[in-house]
């Protein structure tokens, strides 16, 4: 059975790029448009890993990350932040909230797939 990755980003075209790279690598993909949408889709779903943007409307990526880590069902789910944010302060905030990796856009799909392969156990 393939592993399922949730992709959370407010850009539909960006989600499509990530989804295609992950599907090509054999992963199932669930898409969410922002943190609120992702929370509703996480409810009861078996998600092996989350790829999440930082800057989104309704609920940003770091707030979503904190929400995921506070949930008993998903607190051990690895989260990769995939964002244009590259400041050390943001990265430190992400690590403190529980992010396992930080990839800065623009990115190489192979770089993301490598990180997913490493963390998606």
Automatic annotation (TrEMBL):
The keyword Phosphoprotein belongs to this UniProt entry's keyword annotation: yes
PROSITE patterns, per database record: RESPONSE_REGULATORY
Modified residues (4-aspartylphosphate): 53
InterPro entries the UniProt entry points to: Bact_response_regulator, CheY-like_superfamily, Sig_transdc_resp-reg_receiver
Keywords noted in UniProt: Phosphoprotein
Top-rank lineage group of the source organism: Bacteria
Domain Response regulatory: 4-120
One Pfam family hit: Response_reg
SUPFAM superfamilies (UniProt xref): CheY-like (SSF52172)
Name recorded for this polypeptide: Response regulator
């Amino acid at each position: 059975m393939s592993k399922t990755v949730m992709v959370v980003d407010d850009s539909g075209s960006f989600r499509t790029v990530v989804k295609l790279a992950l599907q090509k690598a054999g992963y199932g993909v669930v898409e969410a448009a922002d943190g609120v949408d992702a929370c509703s889709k996480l409810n009861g779903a078996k998600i092996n890993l989350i790829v999440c943007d930082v800057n989104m409307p309704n609920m940003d990526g770091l707030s979503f990350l904190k929400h995921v880590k506070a949930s008993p069902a998903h607190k051990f789910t690895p989260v990769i932040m995939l964002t244009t944010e590259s400041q050390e302060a943001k990265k430190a905030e992400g690590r403190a909230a529980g992010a396992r990796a930080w990839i800065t856009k623009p990115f190489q799909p192979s770089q993301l797939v490598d990180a997913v392969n490493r963390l998606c156990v």
